[in-house]
Amino acid sequence: MLTKPELRPELREVALMWLCENDATLKAAGVCALGAQHDYAMNTGAHLSTAKNVPGRPCKPELVSPLSVKKRAMNTQEGRAALVHALAHIEFNAINLALDAIWRFNDMPENYYLDWLKVASEEANHFSLLSAHLASVGYSYGDFAGHDSLWEMVDRTKDDVLARMALVPRTMEARGLDALPALRAKLAQAGDIKAAEILDILLRDEVGHVAIGNYWFNWLCNQRGLEPITTYQQLAQQYNAPKLRPPFNLDARRKAGFSEVELSNLIEN
Question: Is omega for the bond preceding 247 within 30 degrees of 0, making it cis?
């Protein structure tokens, strides 16, 4: 006797569900499980919408201007915890941006959605690692204030997948490639070896995440008949992207797919 097959979850709908989840721990666990599932339907042409707040986030941390975030002294436990918390907050936002890239933009190739699912799952793992380390020293996610500049750029680019690929992974996240080595060194010098080891994982994975952004930015430029470097410069100006400042992690940027011309322009400007 034939039985009705179980309906597989639709990837983009589930991504939207987890994006709307307010509990950070539940969100991270759910996205990790989704990334490990490898069994879902995919409707790339669907136009999805939601009446819920996007992104879902807990009531804490308090969100403040980047200029209002306090300096973090590495010679105190609280200062080191504040730095780890800031990184956890970035990773929480990075989970959301990857989920947003999945549900918001329709009619992309299936590999686009699979790539961003991989990013979301790895960002969720990063958040979980940093949260567990915070707990080990007596703190929790939400104990310190955070800023929202990463998500602000995600929101600004919600109407164009090309702008999103240009200005979130290739700009905002690529800044992490430059910043992580120095932050790792500070934590290691202060004796927080566990945190330094977690940052090694973050840097390794973030190279891949920026590479995914680079790939789909260049793919979209090719589809639209656009020259990538000029297009990036125009989008950066149009969306008022932050100016990138040295020092630059040129080795990591090369691994992430930036061309030598782009790196030369970065240094010269």
Answer: yes
Domain with residue 149: its CATH number is 1.20.1260
Task: Please report whether residue 177 resides in a domain.
Answer: yes
Task: Please give the pLDDT value at position 4.
Answer: 40
Instruction: Name the 3-class secondary structure at 122.
Output: helix
Q: What is the pLDDT of residues 200-239, one digit of tens each?
A: 999 999 999 999 999 999 999 999 999 999 999 999 999 9
Closest by Cα among 143, 149, 150 to 80: 143
Residue 48 falls within a domain, yes or no?
no
Is 36 inside a domain boundary?
A: yes
110 belongs to a structural domain: yes
Q: Phi, psi at residue 190, to the nearest 5°?
A: -80, -5
What DSSP state is assigned to residue 246? S
Task: Give me the number of domains the chain comprises.
Answer: 1
Identify the pLDDT of residue 109. Answer: 97
pTM above 0.85, yes or no: yes
Cα–Cα distance list, 20 to 15, 47, 104, 213, 216 (Å): 9, 17, 13, 23, 25
Separation CA 165–CA 10 (nearest Å): 23
Distance, in Å, from the CA atom of 109 to the CA atom of 130, rounded to the nearest integer, reads 33
Distances (CA, A) of 142 to 63, 139, 157: 10, 9, 27
Domain that holds residue 215: 11-42+55-268
d(CA 226, CA 21): 37
φ, ψ for residue 59 (rounded to 5)? Answer: -65, -25
The residues near 139 (Cβ < 8 Å, ≥ 6 apart) are 81, 84, 85
For the chain, which residues score pLDDT lower than 70?
1-7
Backbone angles phi and psi of 146, in degrees to 5: -140, 165
